[in-house]
Amino acid sequence: MKILSIESSCDETAAAVIEDGRKIISSVIATQVDEHKLYGGVVPEIASRRHCESINGVVSEALERADMRLSELDALAVTYAPGLIGALLVGVNFAKGLSLSTGLPLIPVHHLRSHIAANYLAYAELEPPFLCLVVSGGHSHIVEVKNYTDMKVLGRTRDDAAGEAFDKAARTMGMPYPGGIHLDKAAEYGNEEGYKLPQPKVSGSEYDFSFSGLKTAVINLIHNAKQKGEEINVNDLSASFRKAVVDSLINNFIRAAENAGCDKLVLAGGVSANSLLRRRASKEAKKRGWKCFYPPLELCGDNAAMVGAQAYYEYIAGNIADMTLNAAATKSIESAFDDV
């Protein structure tokens, strides 16, 4: 089954052609990073406008690279939630137009489910059930993946997401957007014991996260040092901050896996590209004789290939949309198709 998929939830306009949820036939991404870098983060209005300008060309290029016509496809898929509402609407309405004009079935895909599915494109042997740590700029979840379309959230952030905390800490250190990547690189040259930082915990919720206090502690540390004329060792602070975030993520993730009796760990989302997170997850899994999976770097960020991968399983489950499909800025991964 060949699916043309579209992703426009944030600042990447992407399209791909995916076969049977596991094979990438083509994948195209038009990024807006350089433009948003001027503002230190994504500007929603600019993102929406750029999606409008790019989406037709991106979809056309994906079909051209696949050497296929619309008539050779079996279905269309699009990210409809969660994300920036204006950005999502561009992709959803474009996909609805294609579906209406071609008669192809339209598959709505939840953004976080598609991040998990990025791993299906890299590992033919990976099948549910497993436990997944989904970490990105806007989300930090521990998800029990019971099957391809049945998922349960065991833990989540109570405030900032891990990716957001990385980006804001990096920005305060003077690093360019997207800051998390630059902080990770700087941390590789630093001493992770160089600065004493708080270890965030959520009372009464052993699997939940909280990163706002940790982020604030770093920002205050930097501001206080500047006021006193003291030098900050950026590499050491990056390493210390990265360790504090990863410790929180991994400790909760491993505890949840042990309590759930799960021996298969999966990382997903933009922060799954973080080098320490990948090393720690692999180490903890190996220590216990578990398996650990994480997507290749090119599939960690937003892309349409992962949308097409998840769409295949949503189609099998009968999750098809009609022309009333709308975008949603927020949507639970558990009830992804309620009211769709």
Report mean pLDDT, rounded to a whole number.
95
End-to-end gap: 23 Å
What fold name goes in the CATH topology slot of the largest domain?
A: Nucleotidyltransferase, domain 5
Annotation field: number of helices: 10
Count of discrete domains: 2
The shape, in one word, is globular
At the fourth CATH level, what is the homologous superfamily of the largest domain? ATPase, nucleotide binding domain
The CATH C-level name of the largest domain is: Alpha Beta
Helix percentage range: 40-55%
Oligomeric organization of the protein chains: single chain
Number of strands: 10
Main sheet properties = 5 strands, mixed
Low-confidence stretches: none
The spatial strand order of the largest sheet comes to 3-2-1-4-5
* Strand-residue proportion: 15-25%
Can you describe what's shown?
The structure is a single chain. By secondary structure, the protein is of the alpha/beta class. The strands form 2 sheets. It has a 5-stranded mixed sheet, sandwiched between helices. The chain has a 5-stranded mixed sheet with strand order 8-7-6-9-10, sandwiched between helices. Helix 8 runs parallel beside helix 9. The protein has 2 domains: 2-116 and 299-316, ATPase, nucleotide binding domain (Nucleotidyltransferase, domain 5); 128-297, Nucleotidyltransferase, domain 5 (2-Layer Sandwich). It has helices at residues 33-37, 44-66, 85-102, 111-122, 162-172, 179-187, 212-228, 234-260, 275-288, 305-316, and strands at 2-7, 12-19, 23-31, 75-81, 106-110, 130-135, 140-145, 151-156, 264-268, 291-293. The model has no long low-confidence stretch (mean pLDDT 95). The chain contains 10 helices and 10 strands.
